[in-house]
Design brief:
- This protein has about 290 residues and is α/β, with parallel strands linked by helices.
- It has 11 helices and 13 strands.
- It has a 6-stranded mixed beta sheet with strand order 8-12-7-11-9-10. A 5-stranded mixed beta sheet has the order 4-3-5-13-6, sandwiched between helices.
- Helix 1 packs across helix 3, helix 2 packs across helix 3 and helix 5 crosses helix 10.
- It is globular and about 65 Å long.
Length: about 290
């Protein structure tokens, strides 16, 4: 089972067409068929259901897909690491949730980049589950997420707590600068995924299993809608500090109710903790925790 076959499998799973997959890889369709058959023989299961109209993953194919994707990630990461040898003393790979990067971490990463010119730096922005997986596979060395996975293979350090605040844009003269729970129920609220603790708090505050007009898993998307005047959103304070300072957003004070804060955790793969890249990173981070 070779890398080209893995790439063909992933592309076919995405576009569900042997013809399209062959076009994307600049080969004839029979080559794609042979590659898929090779993988199926190796795995011992049919990975696709085929008919005249489309191609769909079987249950075995769906189970195999995330592992195939990780194989390609490892391949790419290995090439990058091999090419960096000799030119740099070490490489530091960091993964984090987007809102953490946009909050306190972006300036720290830039500081590291400037101070340690002999360390190659790799940054991946992913969700928490993917970061934990990448850490476990040793594709990244350090991760920043909002949950404590409590896994023995990681050194876990609580870095700081990020306040959750309510914001809206600053274009309406009628905006209340302070609201009560009853006021909150009347607002056009845009929901950004801020974790289970926040969701449970919001459910208890405005009703269990609330159906909101707009829901999104990224804070940045909710902020984009709020800035364009679509409503209000709860967000982490660090992710919008620049917009608050510039006046693009305003913070709404909450009268006698407050959402839970979000803890930010730094995870370090214990196998990498003594590497030069990680040691230098911990030096930079000393002032935060």
């Amino acid at each position: 089972m070779n890398i080209e076959a893995i790439e063909s499998f992933i592309l076919l799973a995405e576009n569900k067409s042997f013809t399209k997959t062959a076009e994307l890889q600049y080969v004839v369709q029979s080559t794609i068929s042979n590659r898929i058959s090779e993988i199926e023989r190796y795995v011992g299961k049919d990975l696709f259901n085929r008919n005249n109209r489309n191609v769909e993953l079987t249950e075995a194919g769906m189970a195999f897909l995330p592992y195939a994707e990780r194989i390609l990630i490892l391949k790419k990461d290995g090439i990058i690491k091999a090419r960096s040898t000799g030119k740099f003393e070490d490489r530091l790979a960091i993964g984090m949730v987007e809102s953490i990067y946009k909050g306190n971490l972006s300036s720290i990463i830039k500081d590291y980049f400037n101070k340690f010119s002999t360390i190659a730096l790799k940054l991946k922005i992913n969700d928490s589950e993917e970061i934990i997986q990448l850490l476990g596979d040793e594709i990244i060395d350090v991760g920043f997420i909002y949950t404590n996975p409590k896994l023995s293979k990681f050194e876990v350090i609580s870095i700081y707590e990020d306040d959750i605040i309510l914001v809206t844009n600053n274009n309406k003269a009628s905006v209340k600068k302070e609201i009560t729970i009853s006021d909150l129920l009347e607002l056009p609220l845009l929901y950004a995924d801020l974790g289970p603790d926040f969701f449970n708090w919001l459910s208890e505050t405005i009703g269990f299993s609330p159906l909101l007009k707009f829901s999104v898993n990224r804070i940045s998307c909710a902020v984009d809608f709020v800035k364009d005047g679509f409503g209000y959103a709860f967000v982490t304070k660090s992710s919008v500090e620049k917009d608050l300072f510039k006046g693009n957003l305003i913070q709404i004070n909450l009268n006698e109710f407050k959402p839970p804060s979000r803890k930010v955790y730094m995870l370090i793969n214990k196998n990498k903790i003594n590497s030069l890249g990680v040691k230098n990173w911990l030096t930079i981070m000393e002032n935060l925790y």
